[in-house]
Amino acid sequence: MLIGDYKATYAADEAIFRSWPVRYGFAAMVAGLVLLPFAANSFIVFLATQVAIYTVAITGLNILTGYTGLISLGHGALVGVGAYATAILANWLGVPFWVVIPMAVAVTAGVGLMFGLPSLRIRGLYLTIATLAASFIIVFVIEHWGSVTNGDSGITLAPASVFGIDLVSDPQKYALIVPIAVLAVLFAQNLFRTRIGRAFIAIRDSDYSAEIIGVGLTRYKLLAFGLGSAYAGLAGSLWAYNFLALLPTQFELQLSIIFLAALVVGGSARTLGPVFGAVFVILIPEMLKWVFGFLTPFNPTIVEYTAPANTIAYGLLIIVFMIFEPMGLAAIWTRIWRYINLWPFSP
Amino acid sequence: MNIVYVIEDSLTGLMTGGVYALIAVGIVFVFRATKVFNFAHGTVMMIGAYFYYTITVVLGDLGLGTWAIYVLGVPLTLLVSALFGAAIERIVMRPMLGQNPFAMIMVTIGLISVLEGSAAVIWSTNAKFPPALVGLNIDFVAGMAINRQMLASFLIAGIVFAAITVLFLKSKAGVAIRATASDQSTAYAMGINVPRVFSVTWMVAAGTGALAGVLLAPLNSLTPGLGQVGLSVIAVVILGGLDSVIGVLLAAFIVGWLEAMANHFLGGDFKEVVPYAVVLLIILIRPYGLLGTRDVERV
Amino acid sequence: MKVDRRTVLKGTAAVAATSIMGMPAIVQAQSKKWVFAGSSPLTGPFAQAGTTALKDLLDWVEMTNDSGGIAGRPVELIHEDSGYVPTNSLANFKKAMSADEKPIFYSGDSTGFMKLVAPELNRTPVLCGGTSFASDLANPATNPFQYIAGPTYQAMFDILLKHVKDNGGSTVAFVYSDTEFGRDPIEHGRKAAAALGLKVVHEEITKAAGAEVQTHVAQLRRANPDFVIMHGYVTGVWPEIIGTARAFKMETKFLGTFWGMEKVIADAVTAKAGPILDGYAGVLPYRYFYEAKDSPSYSKFFAFKKQKYGDKFPGYVVTWSLQPMFSHELAKNAIEATVNADKEVNAKNLIAALGAIKNWDSGGYMGQPVTVVNHSVPQGRVYSYSAETKLFLPVSDWIVT
Predict the structure, then answer these.
(1) Which domains does chain B have, with CATH numbers?
(2) In Å, how far is C101's CA from the nearest CA of chain A?
C-alpha cells in the first residue's frame, strides 16, 4: 500500500516506471496488446494498428510541440514525406523494410530540419505558420513531382516481408507495427530523462532563459525538429506498410490539424498524451458511427441528419473535454492513478 | 506576355484582397483581445451567410421587393451574426478564460465540426443560391474587364474596414480593446470590463465575417463547406502580423495579388502554394509580419 | 507478473470492449440474402450528391426486394459516411469485410478510395464498383475486381471532342479542378484533340470548390477558344465559370462531363442568374430520368416512388442517383448470371460474369445495348441544356467509343 508519492533515492525519481501500479499497468497493457489480435476481428486490429501509427506521429509532435513549445501545423505533411520516401525507396531499391524504414526516417528528418530552420528566427504563432506553409509546399511537391511520386494518381508498394512471409493481413501488420510503436513511445519517455529532453523543456518554458543557463538554442531547436520529424517519418513508413497505397491528399492540412487536436485532447507534454489522443481521434468517430447506427436502425433514410450529427458530436466532445480538462485526457488518467495509488487514503 | 492582361489580373487580385481583408480582420480582432487564433472564423462566416440566406428567403416570402434585402436583410444579418458571435464567446470561450491558449485554439477547432455539422442539419447540404447584393456585370475600361460585383464587394469591404479602424482607434470600446490587448491584468485593474471586451470583439468578428459571407456566398453556391475559405486567409493574417489591423489590410492585397499573378504566370495549381511560399520568405525576413507588434520579452 | 484484481479487471475490460465493438452492426439469423456494402459522402464537399444518391439507392433496393430480390434472395444495403475522405472509406471497407456476413459487393465513393483499396482487394477480393469513372480503373490487369458503371473520363472526353469536331469547332480549352478527378483525362484529351485535328489553345486549373473564377475566365477570354470542356466539378465552379464568361460577353460554348450535368443545379443557377446556362452541353452515359418513356427501368422506379411517397415525389431522380443505381444494376446482372451458370458466387466469378456482359438490355438506362469492355461501359450521349424548358435534351446519337 502506498500512502504518498515519496521518493527516497534519485534512481526512484528518474525511473521510467515510477511506481508499482505503473509497472503492472504497463505489463497489463503489453499483455492486452499481445492478446488483442487473437480476441478481436480484423477491423478492430486494423483500428488498433491505426492508433499505433497515429501514436508514433503524435509522439513526434509531442516532442516538438508539447515539450519544446514549437507548434507545428506541418506534421501531417512530414508523415507524408515518410510514407512517400518509404514507397519510393522500396520501389527503387527493392530492399527489405528494415532497411527502408531507417532510410525514410532519415529523409524525413532531413526535410523536417530544412523546414525547422526558420525556427531559429521566428517564434510562436509565426513559426506555426511557417510550418503551415511547409505543409502546403510539401503536399504540392508530392502532387506535382509526378516522375518520382506518380503525382496524384497515388503510389503503391510491395508489402513488408519477414522470413519470406508478406505482411498483408491485418494481424500480420499489427505484429510489425505495434511493437515498433511501443518502442518509439518508450524511447520518447526515456528522452525526457536526459539532458536533451530537459533542454527541450527549458526552451519551451522560456527560450531566452534556457540560453542563459547554457542550452544552445540553435542546436536544440533543430534537434527537436529533427527528432519530431524522425518520428513523423517512422509513422509515415509504418503508414505506408499498413496501407500499401498512398495518395497525396491523405497528408494535407487536415491530417496535421487532427494530429494537433489529438495531442491537445490527449494531453501535451505527457508520455501517454499521444496514446490517448490517437485513441480519441481514431476510435471516437467509429464509436459515434456505432452509436448513431443503434439509434437509427429502422430508418436509414435520415442519414442526412445522422451523418452531420456525428460531426457535431465529435466537435462537442473536443470542446467539452477542453473546457473540463484543458490539460487533456492524460491529466484525468493521472488523477485516476493517483487515486488508486493512494487508496485507501485517497483524497 | 501582354501588359494589359497583367494589369487586368492584378486589379482582380487586389479586389479579391479586399474581401480577404474583411475576413481576416475578424481573426485579428479576436486575436488582439483574447490571444486566441480563431480557426473557426471561416465557419462563423459560413453561418453568417446562411443567416443571410434565411433572412432573404423570409423577406421574399413576405413579398417585399429587392430593396428589403439592402434595408432589412443585410442589417438583420449583421445583427443576428453579432449576437451569434457573442453567444459563442459566452458559451464556449468564456469558460476557457485564463486557460492555456493552446486549449482555447483546440476549442475553436472543435467549433468547426460543430458549426459545419449544425449547418448541414439545419439547412441541409444542398447548395443554396442567396441573392447577390450587386449583379454580375462586367464593364470594359480601357480594354480591361472590371467586374462590378467584385468592385462593389471591394468598396463595401473597404468602407467597413475603414469604419472598424476608426472605431478601433477612436472609440472608447476600441481603447478598451487595445488596453486589454496590451495587458489583460492591468486592464482589469483599471476598471475595464475585460469579459465584455471579449464579447465585443467576438461580435465585431462575427459581424464582419457575416458580411464577408454575404459577399462571397453569391459568387459561389452556399454549402457548409464555405468555411474552408477561412483557412486560406491564415496566410493573410500572419503576413499582416497577427495583431495589426493595417498590416492585415496590406497583407490581404499582397496575397490577393500574388494569387492572381501565380494564376496568370504559373497556372491555377500554383495559386494556393505561391502565396504561402512568399509569406514564408517574408516572415523569415520580418519575423513579426509586416506590421506586427514585436514582443519584448523580459527574462 | 503477479496477477491481482486490477490487472484481471483491466484485461477483462479490454476483452469486453473489443468483443462489443467486434459485433456486427445488425445481427441477423437469416443468411439467405446478399449483403451490399458501400461508402457515401454524407458530409463534406459532395454531401448533397451523396445523401440524395443514398436515399434513392435505398429505394432501389426496396424495389428490387419487393420484386423478388436478386436470384430469389433479398438484398441488404449497408452504407456508411466517408466525408469524401478516402482513408475513411477504406476503414469502412475494412469494417464491412470483417463483419460476420461479408458483403459480396462493395460500392466505393471516390477515385482515391478505389486506388487505396486495390492492394486490399488482392487479399480480400470482393466485387467493387463505385462512383468513379477514373480511366486507370478500366484495366482488368491491374484492377481485377473493380469496374466502372459507364465510360471512363477519357472516353467522355473522346465523345466531347468528337462533338466539338462535328459542330465545326477548331479550337478547344480544358478547364479542370486541381484534383485527381480533374486531371484524370487531360493528358489523353490533349492527344485525342490532336488526333482529331483540334487545337488545345488553353488549359486552366481551378480549385474543386469555392474558386474565385474571374482570373480564370479572363485567361479563357484571351485564349478565346470555340469550345471549353470543363471537368472535375460537381455542384460548384462550373456554373460560375459560365456565368462570368457570359458577363464577359464570350461566345464560347461550354461542355461538361457527367458529374457537372445535373438538372437540379442548372435549374437553381437559372433561377438565380437567368438563362446563362442555355446551350451548355455535356456527355451523359445514362438517360435523364424524365426520359422515362424510353426506359422501362425508369418507369418502374417512377411507379415505385410514386406509390411510396405519393405527391411528395417530385417525379425526377437526379443523375447522381442514376449512376449508383446503374452500378448496382450491373452487380445484380453479374450475380444473376453467376447463379444461373450454377457457379459459386464469389468475387472472381462475379467480376468474370460482369466482364462478360454483352449486348445486355439495361432497360433504358443506356440507349445502346450494354457491352462491358475492360470493366467499363464506353457509351454516352451529348445533352444540351435549355433554360426555357429547363431540360437537358439530346443533341447527338448514342456514341459507343
Answers:
(1) 3-285 (1.10.3470)
(2) 13
